[in-house]
Amino acid sequence: MKRRKVICKICNKEIAVNMIQRHEVSCLRKIDRRKSLSIIEVSILLENGKYQCNVCSKEYTQKGIGTHYWLKHGDGIPHLEKIHEQTRKMHVSNRGRSSWNAGLTAKTDARIAKSADLVRKKYESGEITPSFAGKKHTEESKKKISERQSLAHKEGRAWNIGQSRWNNKPSYPEQYFMQVIENEFDDKQYVREFSLGRFALDFAWVHKKKCIEIDGKQHDELPDVRERDIRKNEFIKSSGWEVLRIKWKVLFKDPKQWISLANNFINKT
Q1: Residue 255's pLDDT band (cuts 50, 70, 90)
Q2: Domain CATH code at residue 263
Q3: Which of 55, 95, 127, 206 could bridge 122 with an S-S bond, Cβ 3.0-4.6 Å?
Q4: Does residue 22 sit within a domain?
Q5: Backbone angles phi, psi at 56, to 5 degrees
Q6: Stretch 114-123: mean pLDDT, rounded?
Q7: 265: which residues sit within 8 A by CB, 6+ positions away?
Q8: 36-63 pLDDT, tens per residue?
């Protein structure tokens, strides 16, 4: 039997009546996506082909800059709330009744508990197999994945390039230095965790191409970290930037001298 069709109020296309709510959600996504892409016009096109956000100075591809601006600086949150509301409506039938299992769990409903127990027994007996458990990488495929990941990092395409920590929260020395900048520095126009190539700069004055790195004790104690700092310094200087490294322990012992030195480093032309 041919399904009845209705007209979408957003794009005026004919859509099957049972798919109209899902389609309208998709239409709303596309509209907000097109609005966000207009930010490309006011973003800065860099030599590496990426676009720099005019608000936080982070770099993204042409496809990613619109999504970044929409989520971080635009109307991404209201949009997501709108999508969630549309999704909730999709769980309500035409008669206004909620789905029978909406909000129920195995602990609160015997039917769901019985179904979960049945599926668990089938897994244990081998009657059904999880989709993620049936395939294993060979040594050759592992080698290919490793080579591709290395190439992605080398070309600056890996998603985690420049991320020095998962939550991206400042350490205590960085929090301290942020207060120093706020109270003592003449130029407070810095960007924290600014991405430069594959590295993240602790405190970057992008308009002056200068940065300050605050080094904790691991920078002295761990050989891998020391070697990474050397590579990082070389890359910063080859990119036309200047860098000042300050050890946290010496900053803590003699803050007045190092605060004055850091302020003069940023101010000098």
Answers
A1: confident
A2: 3.40.960.10
A3: 127
A4: yes
A5: -115, 0
A6: 85
A7: 210, 212, 242, 244
A8: 445 555 567 777 778 787 777 788 887 7
**Overall domain count for the chain:** 2
Helix (H), strand (E) at residue 5: strand 5-7
With contact defined as beta carbons under 8 Å apart, do 184 and 259 qualify?
A: yes
Distances (CA, A) of 221 to 16, 53, 174, 218: 65, 36, 19, 5
Question: Of 72, 90, 108, at which residue does a domain stop?
Answer: 90
What is residue 101's DSSP assignment? Answer: T
Instruction: Report which DSSP code applies to 254.
Output: S
Domain boundary among 74, 90, 106: 90
In a domain, 104, yes or no: no
Residue ranges making up the domain that contains 47? 5-90
Residue type, 169: K
Query: Can you name the residues that pair with 52 across neighbouring β-strands?
Result: 44, 59
How many helices and strands, by DSSP H and E, does the chain display? 10, 9
Q: At 232, phi and psi to the nearest 5?
A: -65, -45
Dist. CA 173–CA 168, nearest whole Å? 14
Contact 8/24 with Cβ under 8 angstroms?
yes
Residue 173 to residue 203: CA distance in whole angstroms: 12
